[in-house]
Amino acid sequence: MLDKPSFTDKKYLVTLVFVTSLFMLWGIAITMADVLNKHFQHVLSLTKSQSAFVQFAVFGAYFVMGIPAGLFMKRFGYKKGVLLGLSLFATGAFLFVPAAYTSSFGFFGFALFILGCGLSTLETVAHPFVAALGDQRSSDQRINFAQSFNAVGAMLGPFIGSYFLLRTNVAGSTDLTSVRVLYLVIGIVIALIAVSFSFVKVPATTDPHAVVADPDAVNVDIAPGKKLFEHKHFVWAVVAQFFNVAAQAGTWAFFINYGHEKMGFTDLKAGNFMILFMGMMLTGRFAGTFLMRVIAPNKLLAAFALANIVMCIIVAQSLGWPSYIALLLINFFFSIMFPTIFSLGIKNLGVHTQQASSFISMGVVGGAFFPFIMGKVADSAGVAHAYYLPIICYIVIFFFGAKFFRVKHS
């Protein structure tokens, strides 16, 4: 009988602390971009559809950098992959300084793209890195532990962004000093983390595909004659992930706008509610993990997708607090979608697993385009009516969870 696997080994502790912190860092950066979206509407006099370029730059970078980051990691290893990601992250943050001096939204877009390339690299490297830091039977525990810090980062991002950017908003102001100072500090912090990590000696890691405790748990390709894109459940997972991140990016991008325009909140108060909004995602993640003990993941995914269809309908009605509570609950039901779609999509792919992971991760590009469309609707018909659009996304996710997740043997 096999001993119960340890969470990690003592030799990996320092490395695990550093790598786990990365999950929090990109959570902060991504949700801070949603605050930046609202701030740019003020200081650069942008429409909602124009400010959605913030999300386009960040999520577009995920699409562009996904495969190169994976190839770099495979060629040079986990540590150098992390250092590349941190370097790009810091460089993008430092580029905010000249962008602020020139007041150029195009320059900000370029800075966000470089920063996004860093986030994409970190996310590509960090998941398998954490999995490799110990016994593979406990790798899921380590990844879930690290992802909990990502949710904490998603709460810190709106708090930091609202305090430094929205707190000082003055009608008609074009001052970008707060943006310049905030991202200069972020760049310095990330650079210091990179330098510190460069001195960490990473012990030899385990191979997730070589250490197998239970042969029945191995990701065996049950249709080895198929090429990757002949696996229909994988193809549908890529599609579902595209629409999942599209809905997420659009919902997050205009959350502050909804609070300001429909609830009468100040930008700062609406930004502070975003902390609660992200807390709902953390709560949903814990609740979803518990529910999956008794409910099949695909069924829970389908149920959560249906719930968010209902939430979007309520949000679009502008009913005051009932609609705002429904908006908060959207993030609760978001919580399990990304990892569940991911895990269902790579099921029984065998040697295709790593390549499939890259393609599913690239589905994040949905977040680059959807905020533009929601912004156009918000500009013309109002921000509440823009929340009808994510319903399309949840319909796709529902069908994936209800039917198209199935692995076909031939």
TrEMBL record:
- Pfam family of this protein, just one? MFS_1
Residue ranges annotated as transmembrane are 12-33, 53-73, 82-101, 107-133, 145-166, 181-200, 234-258, 270-288, 300-319, 325-344, 356-374, 386-405
Cited CDD domains? MFS_FucP_like
What's the chief localization of this chain?
membrane
Q: Where in the cell is it found?
A: Cell inner membrane
Record-level Gene Ontology MF annotations: fucose:proton symporter activity
UniProt keyword annotations, A-Z: Cell membrane, Membrane, Transmembrane, Transmembrane helix
This protein's GO cellular component annotations are:
plasma membrane
Mode of membrane association: Multi-pass membrane protein
What name is this protein filed under?
MFS transporter, FHS family, L-fucose permease
Organism of origin? Pedobacter hartonius
